[in-house]
Amino acid sequence: MDFFAPAFSLWGSPTTWLEIVAFVLALAMVGFNIREIHWGWPLAIISSLLYFALFWQSKLYGDASLQIFFAAIALWGWWQWLRGGREGEDGAGLKVVQLSRQGLLWTIALSALLWPVTGLFLKTCTDSDVPWWDAFPTALSVVAQFLLGRKYLENWLMWIVINVASVALFAYKGLWLTVILYTLFIALSVVGWRAWRRRLS
């Protein structure tokens, strides 16, 4: 099967088999994350590699590169959820916690720094037609993925912001199935926030 072949047309744009498979795996991944099931991480690896191919073809180089980062950090996240720990924990895997005030300030500062750096790189080193727009969810996703890997509650708030920006970006690019996916991600991020908040240590 040619994964780049159109399976159907959605609102005037072709939807490939690649996008369909990536869509299904990504939804399953987030569902596992909400329930703190570690099998979401290997699904993240596969889904990220598929989305790398899709985004690269659409000249979304920031989001494409981000998928490689996601695939690599998923191995680290998988380990953290299985064997990671914090001082005072029993070593049987991470528990959900909130960021400290200092941690929150670092998160905001790092996000504010990464966005212009990423945008400048995309503007000067690629033929992206949306370098700054592409850079925003790319930069924030790096930070949010770290927070998810360490089970910080605030990762879900960051994903809400990232997913809202991504919906607009993918709509502009005509990736309509991915628009639907990221719209669902917004709702699932709210669900994840509420579920993890109930499980706070």
* Average of the residue pLDDT scores: 89
Q: What percent of residues are in strands?
A: under 5%
Percent helix among the residues? over 70%
Sheet/helix structural class: mainly alpha
Question: Which descriptor suits the 3D outline?
Answer: globular
How do the SSEs run, as a string of H and E? EEHHHHHHH
Largest sheet: 2 strands, antiparallel
**Whole-number total of structural domains:** 1
Count the strands? 2
Query: Total number of helical segments?
Result: 7
Poorly predicted segments:
none
Distance between the termini: 47 Å
Q: From the alpha-carbon coordinates, what is the Rg to the nearest angstrom?
A: 17 Å
Strand arrangement across the biggest beta sheet = 1-2
Description:
This protein is mostly helical and 201 residues long. 72% of the residues lie in helices and 4% in strands. The protein has helices spanning 17-34, 40-57, 61-83, 101-125, 131-149, 155-173, 176-198, and strands spanning 6-10, 13-16. It has a two-stranded antiparallel ribbon. The model has no long low-confidence stretch (mean pLDDT 89).
